[in-house]
Write a structure and sequence with these properties.
The chain has about 450 residues and is of the alpha/beta class. The chain has a domain of about 140 residues: Leucine-rich repeat, LRR (right-handed beta-alpha superhelix). The chain has 6 helices and 24 strands. The strands form 2 sheets. It has a 19-stranded mixed sheet that branches. The protein has a 5-stranded parallel sheet with strand order 17-19-21-23-24, with no helix packed on it. It is found in: Membrane.
Amino acid sequence: MTVVSIFKLALFFTLTATLVTISLQQEQPLLLNAAEQDSVYQVLSSINSATNWRTLFPDDLCSYPPHGVVCDYFTDPTTKNVTVHVTELSFGYVSDFTPNPSCSPNSTFSPLLFTSFKHLRKLFFYQCFTQTQAFVPVIPTTFGSSLEELVFINNPAFVGPLSGITGNFTSLRRLVLSGNGIHGAIPNAIGDLANIEEITLSRNKLSGKVSVNLSKLKKLKILDLSGNGFHGNVPSSVGNLTHLLKLDLSSNGFSGKIPESLSNLQALDFLDLSFNRFGNFGVPLFLAAMPRLKEVHLSGNLLGGEIPEIWGNLGGILGIGFSNMGLVGEIPASMGLHLRNLCYLGLDNNKLNGKVPEEFGFLEFVNEINLENNNLSGKLPFSANFTAKVGEKLRLKGNPELCVDEKLSHRESVGELKKCSKPDIPNPVLFIGVSHSGLLSSSSSFLVSLLFWGLWILLA
């Protein structure tokens, strides 16, 4: 091969590589708006000022972004011009699989988030505002029409009223504000989020009555208000959320009667009303009409009464939390008969009496049964294999009249129970000497004759 040929070949490969590079660059989205790029730098600096973001990511932030910054193409319907804008911003280290930009203890909340990103669809903060207080900003009415997910998780220093963060979010699907310093009442504007599918406001400092009309939230699948200071009655309009899959109102101050309208939630598979102040109206019978339930938790409400016979259509239940409810009477054997998929059963700290149903011993998937601190009695009906399977999560202490068979007494899970006394052995003299024809022995015949003549004398 001549020198000229070699030169031509090298020139060909050089040109090809250059064309490929140019092509790849053209395929990459370009954040043409310099002001928007500068806003991303400023927001990154507000959550972690120790990192020089401009030096670390000097190129176009839509071509070579840090984790947590996502862009997308947009076409102007009039001019047909294609532009690229930031659509997702996620901050706070979650896992090795989603290494978003980590937040520093003195992170601040940049107001640019609600002014510079008109096309934002998702805003996510995880453990970013933990020490230095960051106040809920006033959101301009011009922002939020594109926002689909607003997520703040475990940001205790993010404080302010919930009314300040609801905005004009006509496209919002997920509102997740969990473990923050959000306070005040639920604003009526929540009822206007027509496209919302999840509202999670757990573990904040919210309070007051839930008076907002929830009937308009036709697409809602998750409603979680747990761990706040709400009080008063649960609004009956919750029963109109017919697509609801999860309802969690636990650890509040709700009172009165659990609304019968919840029976309309035919798609519900998770219900948690535990640790409220619901009145002495008994376990709701409407649970029997909710066949898709997987978990039901009512613990910590003094509902009183007996455990009703409602389990025939609830065979899909995996967990029942009925602790500390003032329940009386016996445990229905039908629970063990129908709830064949049960994994967890909590009936502790009630006033239940009678025997432990032997049907519980045939629950194939159960891994925890808590019957502590009741008035149960009699012999524990479980086999050695069953007690070995459940182990230390078989909790029975606090039932002084409950006893365990000698052969199980050495197991740690039932070791605190007393041993059952041995049954009385009949007098063998009365049962020996029975012939194959079934006649009584001579001793037995004598006693029967004596008893017969004694009665005849008394009656004569």
